[in-house]
Amino acid sequence: MALTPRLELRQGQSLVMTPQLQQAIKLLQMSNLELQAFVESELEKNPLLERDEKREVQAASEVSEERDVASALKDGASAEERLATLDTDLDNVYQGESRADAANRAPAGPADSGWSSLKPSRSVSLDQDDLDIGATLTREETLAEHLTEQMTLALADPADRLIGQNLIGMVNEAGYLTSDPSQVAEMLGTGTGHVERVLGILQGFDPPGVFARDLKECLELQLKELDRLDPAMMILLDHLDLVAKRDFAALRTLCKVDADDIRDMIAELRRLNPKPGHVFGSEPVQPVVPDVSVRPAPDGTWLVELNNDTLPRVLVNNRYMAQVSRGAVRSEDKTYLSECHANATWLVRSLDQRAKTILKVAREIVRQQDAFLVHGVQQLRPLNLKTVAEAIEMHESTVSRVTSNKYMATPRGIYELKYFFTTAISSAEGGEAHSAESVRHRLRELIERETRGNILSDDTLVDMLKAEGVDIARRTVAKYRETLGIPSSVQRRREKNAFGA
User: Fold this and answer.
1) How far is Cα 442 from Cα 316, in angstroms, rounded to an integer?
2) For domain 424-499, which CATH number applies: 1.10.10.60, 1.25.40.10, 1.10.1740.10, 3.40.190.290?
3) Rounded CA gap, 153 and 155, in Å?
4) Which residue ranges make up each domain of the chain?
5) φ, ψ for residue 150 (rounded to 5)?
6) Where are the alpha helices (DSSP H) in 178-317?
7) Which helix (H) or strand (E) holds 296?
């Protein structure tokens, strides 16, 4: 078959996602912390964006500035025209208000102004007496820095310090040594005994248990520091697998101690830190800030409100746009200003639609899970994305993005929006299905009430749940029990018999 060049014309369809559409989708699934960081970066890049700190603008000023902006953009494309050329509309991502949301929404407040007067920002002078420069430079000490500081005091020989510095570089965040001493010796051209000697010194550093190569050695170093490493404890460390299985009868036989001693030894192990390095240089724990709050209304319904503290307030500075456009002579400058204005307008609209969409989804979740808010987790209904999407007339993917990394503050606590979406477990009596989360909660309650002489097996739990109207299989009970971190009935019986519970 001869290969010859030829021209062909083919027709096809494809979905093209513009950068603006991708940005709108990313905004929708961002958490409030990620959104704050994104808006901060946009404020730095776009000179026409500013924070909406104060809203003291007169209507006459707005009309005048609108006239200036229209004049400034007359030679180039306007923001609306540029948005039209993007081949993307916000309606592709966010749909209009649904009938379900219109029935629940609160009366709209006064419309936000789209303008802001220029005011000089507060500047910080380095000559101020109350300015603490050190407070802006301090940070938490890392594990490597903490170990290096101790090494400079403990090791005087330069060769030992070189080995110690290499070993510190091979310690992970948990405090464990990730490399073998023989590899370090080969890399530095020294003997393994030399590296082991330096490692023995480093293993005495603070925090206790650092530079361990496995869990057993980590616990052993901490017990040695506490002067509790006796022969019985060494045997217990050699059989950590039996500790995990709660086989206390076998541990009593191996350690040659009674039940009280085994109880004390295991309690001592639990007080140790299996990851000693995590106390240094760890990232601060960010508290969960709810995006939506729910509170009861006087008429017995629920008020669903957005948390304004998590919503960035930005405006398009049209006054500055009009001012700089008058001095723009080159076409490149006019194009740049027009693009900045279009991007700023798009961002403001996207943030507004994002807030409305979150509120719309949250209201529908509250409507569906009203029984949970009143009676608790036992009344949590089975719910999926499709049900909510159909009620608010949106796509399932949009609802999925809205419920990611978003939290709701309710009278029963703070929950992620995805918590309210659970699978359904059919009823044994043919009634309404049960939520998987409520079944897990009931399973935990039954096991917590069991006594030493009445340990509930998985088969017994199945029978008890079926008697309560829950049609569930034994393997499902075992799966739910494992996700709750509850050991098997055999292990629970061993633990209760050993501890005399």
Assistant:
1) 53
2) 1.10.10.60
3) 6
4) 143-279, 424-499
5) -70, -35
6) 181-188, 192-202, 215-225, 231-238, 240-245, 248-255, 259-270
7) strand 292-296
Exposure class string for 378-402: b at 16+ Cβ within 10 A, else e: eebbbbebeebbebbebeeebbbbb
Q: In angstroms, rounded to a whole number, what is the distance separating the alpha carbons of residues 478 and 491?
A: 14
Q: Are 305 and 292 in contact (CB under 8 A)?
A: yes
8 A C-beta contact, residue 162 and residue 188: yes
The tens digit of pLDDT for each residue in 371-395 reads 989 888 888 888 899 999 999 999 8
- Token pair of 378, please? 């036992």
- Residues 78, 82: Cα–Cα separation, whole Å: 6
Average confidence score pLDDT of the chain? 80
Nearest to 335 by CA among 344, 325, 323: 325
Question: What pLDDT digit, counting tens, does each position of 402-422 carry?
Answer: 998 899 999 989 999 999 998
What is the distance, to the nearest Å, from the Cα of residue 356 to the centroid of all Cα atoms in its chain? 22
- Angle between helix axes 318-326 and 59-72 (nearest 10 degrees) is 40
CA triplet 61, 62, 66: central angle to 5 degrees?
120
Phi, psi of 304 (to 5 degrees): -110, 120
Q: Which residue has the tokens 């034994």?
A: 474
Q: Residue 177's closest CA among 155, 205, 149?
A: 205
Where helices occur in 79-225 by DSSP H, the ranges are 79-85, 99-104, 133-137, 143-154, 158-169, 181-188, 192-202, 215-225
Structure tokens at 224: 């040695």
| Per-residue confidence (pLDDT) for residue 59, from 0 to 100 | 37
- pTM of the predicted model over 0.85: no
Q: Which amino acid is present at 451?
A: T
- Position 71 scores a pLDDT of 52
Phi and psi (nearest 5°) for 185? -65, -40
**3-class DSSP assignment, residue 295:** strand
The pLDDT tens digits of the residues spanning 121-165 come to 334 444 444 444 444 445 678 899 999 999 999 999 989 999 999
Higher pLDDT, 106 or 359: 359
